[in-house]
């Protein structure tokens, strides 16, 4: 890790001064979201978040500060590959000068691509609206008469937008992505470390689903599963707001199992149609 003196030399800016203050006061840092031309560090408030949660005010987890894990020496200025005009918008889908599609910035946060607040309870309607807007302008069909390079860039941009949209749309994939940004992962085989009481509960639900003989029996399991997923959503959001990432990871592991049960309920219900 870089020393504080190195950071002072590399980033002599208000963000760096804020970094020095945070290091002096021993405040925790979280994983940096890298974007070309911007260092964005995500952190989770505690006291303010709890107070906001009590009054049901939205809390967003984004602080524009420099992190010692990934700091900026200068803001990188990107230029259009076609006319070399400076690209001020980030992410830059098109050049504002020559209107040519630009290559995707792969390291850009999905939240930034989809213009969403960095929060677990994001506005999915806004997400869908942004998705449709981007796909209308970036879809490869719009570039069939353009150069080969533009066709390739449109395909790459469209694919990246698709991936970002699908990741952020559902709570489970969204939560897993947020933990990934923080350097935490849910590995395969986590059932071996899950609590035996929880695994027993899952086995009983799966057995009841297998033995269900009427649509009503299946629907009851489906309703119970939806209620459990809603409860987990609230708990995960609270854990992320308070910076309890390990607790959020454990809850997301549970959500992963219940999401699988929800899919099994849909499959079982389809057999009665």
UniProtKB/TrEMBL annotation:
Entry keyword set: Chaperone, Cytoplasm, Metal-binding, Mitochondrion
The record's Gene Ontology biological-process terms are: [2Fe-2S] cluster assembly; protein complex oligomerization
Pathway membership of this protein? Cofactor biosynthesis; iron-sulfur cluster biosynthesis
Q: What is its main location?
A: cytoplasm
Q: Does the keyword Metal-binding apply?
A: yes
Cellular-component GO terms for this entry: mitochondrion
Which superkingdom is the protein from?
A: Eukaryota
Q: Cross-referenced InterPro entries, in alphabetical order?
A: DnaJ_domain, HscB, HscB_C_sf, HscB_oligo_C, J_dom_sf
Instruction: Write out the annotated subcellular location.
Output: Cytoplasm; Mitochondrion
Cross-referenced CDD domains: DnaJ
Q: Which SMART domains match?
A: DnaJ
Tell me its family.
Belongs to the HscB family.
**Subunit and interaction comment:** Interacts with ISCU and HSPA9 to form an iron-sulfur transfer complex. Interacts with SDHAF1 (via the first LYR motif); the interaction recruits the iron-sulfur transfer complex composed of HSC20, HSPA9 and ISCU and mediates the incorporation of iron-sulfur clusters into SDHB which also interacts with HSC20. Interacts with the cytoplasmic form of ISCU and with CIA complex member CIAO1 (via LYR motif). Homodimer. Interacts with ISCU (cytoplasmic form); this interaction stabilizes the (Fe-S) clusters on ISCU. Interacts with the CIA complex member CIAO1 (via LYR motif).
Q: What does this protein do?
A: Acts as a co-chaperone in iron-sulfur cluster assembly in the cytoplasm. Also mediates complex formation between components of the cytosolic iron-sulfur biogenesis pathway and the CIA targeting complex composed of CIAO1, DIPK1B/FAM69B and MMS19 by binding directly to the scaffold protein ISCU and to CIAO1. This facilitates iron-sulfur cluster insertion into a number of cytoplasmic and nuclear proteins including POLD1, ELP3, DPYD and PPAT.
The name under which this protein is listed is Iron-sulfur cluster co-chaperone protein HscB
User: Lineage, please?
Assistant: Eukaryota, Metazoa, Chordata, Craniata, Vertebrata
Q: Which gene encodes it?
A: hscb
